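Sorry to interrupt, but I need a hand with the structure work. Could you write out one complete protein record for me, on any chain you like? Just paste the record in under my message, thanks.

. . .
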Amino acid sequence: MIPLVVLDMAGTTVLDDGLVEQAFLRALPDATPAMVDHVRVTMGQSKIVVFRELLNGETAAQRANAAFEEAYAALVAEGHCAPVPGAPEVITDLRTRGAKVAFSTGFSRATQHVILSALGWTDRADFTTTPAEAGRGRPYPDMVLAAVLGLGLADVRDVAVVGDTPSDVLSGLRSGARVVAGVLTGAGSRADLAAAGATHVLDSIRDLPAVLEGF
C-alpha cells in the first residue's frame, strides 16, 4: 500500500459544479470572455497567481483575490458544497488501510477551511496544504513535497497524487510520485489528463483503491 495519497479538492474530492467560475464572475463582473477562458484553462492553479496574470498590478490582483474568496465562501454558505460521490468512503478506506491522506488546493487557507468546515472534513486528512504555505502552487511540485516533508516520508516515490486538471498531473509528476492519477469529475478531459502524462485516468476517485492495490 502506498503510504501517502495527496488529493486535490475541488473537482476531485469536492464537487465543483462551476463554483470557481461563478465566484470569479462575482469577483470580476466585467470580466471578458478571454479572462473567463483563462480561468478555465488554469483550473487547479493558485488563484492569486491567476489574478496576477489577468490584472495589472499587485493591488488589483489582491483585491480581486479577496473578492473571489468572499464570493466562494458565500456560495458555500448558500449550500453549494458537497463531496464527490464516494470520496468520503475512499478517504476513510485509505486511512483504515494505513495510508496517510493529504489535501492540496489552489485556494487560500481561508477558502480551504471554509470548504472543509462545510463538509465536516476538518479532521478527515492527516495533512493539508495551500500554495502560500508550500511555497508555490501547481503545476510546481511544492504542495506534494510539503506533504512528504510534513508527514515524514523517506521517499517521494511512496506517494500517489490525484487531481482533475493537467496542472495537478504535472505537479505530481514533477514531485516524483509513483502514481499520478487524473479523475474525470472536474475540469480535465481524458485526453487532457493523458496528454499531461497521468499514469492513470479514472472516472472518479472511487476507482483509486483498485489502482493502489497494485502497489
